[in-house]
Design brief:
The complex is a heterodimer of chains A (about 110) and B (about 110). Chain A is an all-beta fold and about 110 residues long. In chain A, about 0% of the residues lie in helices and about 55% in strands. Classes of the chains: A mainly beta (about 110), B mainly beta (about 110). At the A-B interface, strand 5 and strand 10 of A face strand 5, strand 9 and strand 10 of B.
Chain lengths: ~110, ~110
């Protein structure tokens, strides 16, 4: 079965600094990969997705992620953090048994300091 | 479209009571998922449906949990009897096929006392 590892349960950055949230997946076949964001007391919102097209994927709110097959990674980045980016971020991968079942990582809580 | 709609948003119940959570998926979505989120276990997939048919219920924790999808616009997750360890946020999500990602509802926060 697929699995997702998010390195760092908590990440703290200063406003204006680079945001880097790490995600590694286990897969023997190219998966579909996703990043979701969850604000307090809200559901999960899709930030971006990789579905075997361009390896650099741009999403909403200035986030982007790069699929690196050789490293089995799909790290999320944003050049300049904003206070409103403070939230929990989840990386997800489609299960090898079907492209509609998502397996989620444990999440990374991003704090942004002034 | 209003998105995935879940009700109620909050539910507090006593141990042993039956709890029913409801979900209306996005119109036209063929897949519906029920997830549970806790601090200890993160996001767990409980069950998912395709065209109203349960496909994988391997995540349902025990027989106290059951889910139905009587039609394309409605699903329920039932816990009977409820226990304090069932306290969690339960999310419903829906999607179209081919890995376009799932769209989540706002969740139901369940507290069993």
């Amino acid at each position: 079965a697929q699995s997702v590892t998010q390195l760092g349960s908590h990440v703290s950055v200063s406003e204006g600094a680079l945001v880097l949230l790490r995600c590694n997946y286990s897969s023997s076949v190219p998966p579909y990969l996703f990043w979701y964001v969850q604000y307090p007391n809200q559901g999960l919102q899709l930030l971006l997705k990789y579905t075997s097209a361009a390896t650099l994927v741009k999403g909403i709110n200035g986030f982007e992620a790069e699929f690196k097959k050789s490293e089995t990674s799909f790290h999320l980045t944003k050049p300049s953090a904003h206070m409103s980016d403070a939230a929990e971020y989840f990386c997800a991968v489609t299960d090898s048994g079907g492209y509609n079942k998502l397996i989620f990582g444990a999440g990374t809580r991003l704090a942004v300091h002034p | 479209d209003a998105g995935v709609i879940q009700s109620p948003r909050h539910e507090v119940t006593e141990m042993g009571q039956e709890v029913t959570l409801r979900c209306k998926p996005i119109s036209g979505h063929d897949y519906l998922f029920w997830y549970r989120q806790t601090m200890m276990r993160g996001l767990e997939l409980l069950i998912y449906f395709n065209n109203n048919v349960p496909i994988d219920d391997s995540g349902m924790p025990e027989d106290r949990f059951s889910a139905k999808m009587p039609n394309a616009s409605f699903s329920t997750l039932k816990i009977q009897p409820s226990e304090p360890r069932d306290s969690a946020v339960y999310f419903c999500a829906s999607s179209v096929p081919q890995g376009f990602g799932a769209f989540f509802g706002q969740g139901t926060r369940l507290t069993v006392v």
